[in-house]
From TrEMBL:
Region (Disordered): 234-299
Class of this enzyme: transferase
Protein name, per record: DNA (cytosine-5-)-methyltransferase
InterPro entries: C5-Methyltransferase, C5_MeTfrase, SAM-dependent_MTases_sf
Key words of the record: Methyltransferase, Restriction system, S-adenosyl-L-methionine, Transferase
Organism for this UniProt entry: Streptomyces viridosporus T7A
Bias (Basic and acidic residues): 274-295
Length: 423
């Protein structure tokens, strides 16, 4: 089996499914478990810190672990950094077969900090029978010193190990999500996957194929394929959350049409008002002095080119703001159901002649959009309310990144189109 600790809504599992294998996920969160079950993933709802290790001994060829990051993440209080010496002590003790977790947990400022030591409890038990054959672990960058401690232990046990920080955008994920990664193997040299993308496109050379440009949010969401703009308000896949111009899952058709230069945001070239905002939005932003009540709401077709859309990560003054022509920043969601919003401003060359026009209000990102930016399929069956759904999305491992990390261990070739075009 492949054992997936802290399996979440299924980022690693989705990657394994695309690669042709399955895992067994241990996860505590009720809604993440419901999402996994709806996605057809094998799941045990349990507290990873309480579950016994003996059922896996002699049966596990691969171990995956993405401990909860809330104690370490910049989106939280980062008390994991304060607790880090205690976590290192727990890892050292568990690697030697000594369980001091109860004592150390009582001293932690954040009880979630010690969860980062749990993979060592499983690894120690499995190592008694020469398992697993490989290991893949992921966390926020501040956990890298802990991964280096894991690496030292695993090397003593006969593993080849690599650990370091990787940027998900370098592997085709439309998000500059940096994560601390540990890869270990008993049967091959552990090394990071070769990047497929770069901030600027690289030409082919004598040393091999060049790297493609980072995937932008516009490309990932299928917005503005020909003119690279997004309408102010749009029911054709733009920041209004309306229906896609093609059915969900038809990205392959979209890409092939794009390659022929034939695709436009809507077949009729029209720009419709947002379903979410409705006629009230149009009325509030109508620049004319009067309008008959029975006349149709404006379509803004003549204004569509005037606005440049960006994604703002939160409402704080130092929030990351990225143009749709770039990858998103790291997606994270706090106590509010949805912190990421689409914001608009006039393009620089047109600001003077649009200053008197009403700027569209910020529009919250949808779960579907956020999932796509994490490289989940458009129809992934997220369970729970908005807060529960966005929490799952923000904490998940991007399946495309996971696929790049896992494919060498499985001895299979990765086709990125299997992720980006999946329904």
């Amino acid at each position: 089996m492949i054992l997936d600790l802290f399996a979440g809504p299924g980022g690693w599992s989705r990657a394994l499914t695309v690669l042709g294998v399955r895992d067994v996920g241990l996860e505590w969160d009720k809604w993440a478990c419901k999402t996994r079950v709806a996605a057809g993933q094998l799941t045990i709802r349990t507290d990873v810190a309480m579950y016994p290790t003996w059922p896996w001994v002699g049966r596990t060829r691969g171990l995956i672990a993405s401990p909860p990051c809330q104690a370490w993440s910049m989106a939280g209080k980062r008390l994991g950094l304060v607790d880090q010496p205690l976590v290192h002590e727990a890892v050292e003790n568990l690697a030697a077969g000594r369980d001091t977790r109860e004592r150390l947990l009582a001293a932690c400022r954040d009880e979630r900090s010690l969860l980062a030591a749990e993979p060592m409890r499983y690894l120690h038990a499995l190592n008694t029978v020469g398992e697993p054959k490989w290991v893949a672990m992921e966390e926020v960058p501040d956990v890298l010193p802990l991964w280096k401690q894991y690496a030292a232990v695993l090397r003593r046990w006969g593993f080849s190990v690599w650990c370091g920080n990787l940027n998900a955008a370098d592997y085709g994920v439309p998000q500059t999500r940096r994560r601390a990664i540990l890869l270990a193997s008993r049967v091959r040299t552990a090394q990071p996957p070769t990047p497929t993308h770069a901030q600027a496109a690289e030409p082919e050379s004598l040393f091999g194929p060049g790297r493609a440009r980072w995937v932008s949010m516009a490309e990932a969401l299928g917005w503005g394929a020909t003119d690279r703009t997004v309408p102010t308000v749009c029911a054709g896949g733009g920041p209004g959350g309306g229906p896609e111009p093609f059915p969900s899952g038809s990205r392959k058709s979209l890409v092939s049409a794009r390659d022929r230069g034939a695709w436009t945001p809507r077949p009729d070239g029209g720009v419709l008002q947002s379903r979410r905002e409705g006629t009230g939005w149009a009325a509030r932003h109508d620049t004319r002095e009067s309008r008959d009540a029975d006349r149709p709401a404006p379509t803004f077709a003549s204004e569509a080119h005037r606005w440049a859309w960006s994604l703002r990560s939160n409402n704080q003054a130092n929030a990351t703001v990225r143009s749709i022509e770039e990858p998103a920043g790291t997606l994270f969601f706090g106590h509010r159901a949805n912190e990421c919003t689409w914001i608009a401003e006039p393009p620089t060359a047109q600001r003077e002649d649009t200053v008197s026009r009403a700027v569209p209000e910020p529009i919250r990102i949808t779960a579907r959009e956020a999932g796509l930016l994490q490289t989940f399929p458009a129809d992934y069956p997220w369970a729970g309310n908005k807060g529960q759904t966005f929490s799952q999305i923000g904490n998940a491992v991007p399946p495309l990144l996971a696929g790049h990390l896992l494919a060498p261990h499985l001895g299979v070739a990765l086709d990125p189109d299997d992720f980006t075009l999946a329904a």
